[in-house]
Amino acid sequence: MIETILPAGVSCGEAREDLLDADLFPAEAAMVARALDRRRREFTTGRACARTALSGLGLPGVPILADSRGAPQWPTGVVGSITHCTGYRGAAVARTTEIRAVGVDAEPNEPLPGDVLDAICTADERARLPGLAAERPGICWDRLLFSAKESAFKAWYPITHRRLGLVCADVTIGAADGKFRARLRPAASALRNPLASLTGRWQVCDALILTAIAEPVADR
Ligand SMILES: CC(C)(COP(=O)(O)OP(=O)(O)OC[C@H]1O[C@@H](n2cnc3c(N)ncnc32)[C@H](O)[C@@H]1OP(=O)(O)O)[C@@H](O)C(=O)NCCC(=O)NCCS
Predict the structure, then answer these.
(1) Cβ(68) – ligand 1 distance below 6 Å
(2) Where in the chain is the domain with CATH 3.90.470.20?
(3) CATH 3.30.1490.100 fits 2-97, yes or no
(4) Is any ligand 1 atom within 6 A of the Cβ of residue 154?
(5) Best probe residue, ligand 1, of 81, 150, 168, 185 (max atoms within 8 Å of C-beta)
(6) pLDDT digits over 160-212, tens only?
(7) What's the pLDDT score for residue 220?
(8) Hey, which residues does 77 pair with through a beta bridge?
(9) Is 169 in the pocket of ligand 1 (CB under 6 A)?
C-alpha cells in the first residue's frame, strides 16, 4: 500500500496483522522488555517490516535501535521511518545517496478525538478543512492533516535532532492530486541544516490514512 505513495528508490515493508513469529535482536528485545504486550507486538512487527524494507535495498537484517527520543537508528547510509496503528504496521527505507529524509505515518480514517485538532493545527489549516471535505467527502481530513504532520516530523527530526511542535509547520493538502506540503515556520526553518518545506503524498484505503514523505537529496 504505502509504496504507491513513495518514489522509486524507497523500499517498504508492511503488515496488516502482528507477525507473532518475528524475532528481535537481543538489544531490541531489551528496549521493550518492560513494555505491555501490545507495544511489544507492534514494535516487533515494525522491526520485521523494517528488515523487509532493508532487504529490498539488498541490505542485511540488523538491529534497529532508537535514540533517546525514539527515532530509529538506521545503518550508515540509510534513512527510514516506521509507523504503526491498529490494523497496520509499516516501514520505509532508502539510501542516503538518493533520499535525504523519509517519514511515514498511518492512522485510522476516523475523526481526531476530542480537542486534538485545536492542539495540532493553525487557524489557516483549520479553515481549509471544510473545503477539502466538500471536494472529497468520506475522508477524515482532520486526521489526514495530523498524519501529514507526523510524517513531516519523522522526516525532519533525524536531520535536525530537534522537536518541531505540531503548529510549527503549515500543511496544505491537495484533495485532487494526493499530495501535501509542510512549510516550516520561520522559527523551525531557521535551525541549522533546515528543510524549509517537505512535500509528501497521501492515500486513503481500507479505512486507513497513509501519508509519506521522501525528500530527494538536493542535487538530484
Ligand atoms: C514520535 C511520533 C512522531 C510518533 O508518531 P505516532 O503517530 O504517535 O506513532 P507511529 O506509530 O506512527 O510512529 C511511531 C514510530 O515513530 C518513530 N519515531 C519515534 N520518535 C521519532 C522521532 N523523534 N523521529 C522520527 N521517528 C520517530 C519510531 O520508529 C516509532 O516506532 P517504534 O518506537 O516502534 O520504533 C509522535 O508521537 C510525536 O512525537 N510527534 C511530534 C509531533 C510534532 O512535533 N510534529 C511536528 C509537525 S510539523
Answers:
(1) no
(2) 2-97
(3) no
(4) yes
(5) 150
(6) 887 766 557 899 999 999 999 998 865 555 555 557 789 999 999 999 999 99
(7) 53
(8) none
(9) yes
